[in-house]
Amino acid sequence: MATNIRIPTPLRKLTGEQEVVQADGSTIGDILRSLDSMYPGLKERICDEEGNVRRFVNVYVNDEDIRFLDEQATAVREGDEISIVPAIAGG
User: On the chain, which terminus has fewer CB atoms closer than 10 Å, C or N?
Assistant: First the structure.
């Protein structure tokens, strides 16, 4: 099943400037692997060397942060909206 993923502006150079892309998978981990196979280098910007989502990147499924769900094991169903959001620091 293909799922729509919203890509933040800083990562769009890796997706050919596309704001929304599609990827297949039943979990966030599957989606990230699928994205990386279609857009090489994307996953390394989202995940650290151990494969965990970086602290300064938030991934949401239907407006819920995966850190409060099942992390990369969070299930994804058809119609879910996935957003990748870099943290913004200010002062």
Answer: C
